[in-house]
TrEMBL record:
Lineage start: Bacteria, Candidatus Eiseniibacteriota
Limits of the Gcp-like domain: 1-266
Protein's name according to its UniProt entry: N(6)-L-threonylcarbamoyladenine synthase
Gene (UniProt): tsaD
Keyword hit for Endoplasmic reticulum: no
Catalytic activity: L-threonylcarbamoyladenylate + adenosine(37) in tRNA = N(6)-L-threonylcarbamoyladenosine(37) in tRNA + AMP + H(+)
NCBIfam families: gcp_kae1 (TIGR00329), T6A_TsaD_YgjD (TIGR03723)
Coiled coil: none
Amino acid sequence: VVPELASRAHITLLPRVVQQALDTAGLDVDKIDAVAVTLGPGLVGSLLVGIEFAKGLALARGIPWVGVNHVEAHLVSAGLESELTPPYIGMVASGGHTEIYHVPEPGVFHRIGSTRDDAAGEAFDKIGKLMGLEYPAGPDMDRLAREGRDDQVPLPRARLKGDTLDLSMSGLKTAAKLFLEKEPRPIPEPRLRDIAASVEKAIVDVLVERLGQALERYPARALTIAGGCACNTLLRQEATRLAASRNIQVRFPSPKLCRDNGAMIAHAGHFALERGQTTPFSATAIANLDSFEPLPA
């Protein structure tokens, strides 16, 4: 992503997207009671476009606006379609994030683990590129893996020392790069399926292992996974099995809500407004916003 081009695209497309959303909902702008917008984390230019648009709309309409943490919005996104009640363990796994949270009560998010290098989705994409797959590689990797054998390529699972819920993907990526450099080109379709299945299992094994450890340490009545990787078939299967073994619920957003979307921002903003939270007009973008940081109030 080129940040400057992304910002310009936001300027061009945002008004159209807002109008399309209103048309689809059958609403006029005067029916809007509040505006929610991402404060961070993200590309600062794109964030600023959205924030200033939200401020302008709120000011013109005389309604409140509320800034939302993008990652925390992912963590509540499954609640758009099904009940998701704290306490629960949540994972956001995507191309930019792989983080584990404990959510003990509404609006409280404690990060308890994260990747120390590559995100899970980043590992899928980078290894997929080496395999000759198109970006993003996750969907093709998932499709190929369904017909592959996951024990045909020996791949490492990083297990960090100490009492940590952090994880690492860099060793897996390096190992995949080394063996893929030796593969004949073009890689035959049956071999691609086996590689995809082996890579997928290596990534999912690490994610589910850490989720299991989190459930052992923190009280939870549910497990949720969001972000682009939550579309992955094996991850959904293994997380469902993990939750069933602990007799708790498992919640996933539908695929269209796993990736970045405005609905989850509105959902998180609605929760914030219900708690009496609004955001001052002096607030601005926070590119590296951490879930431990309180949002401007």
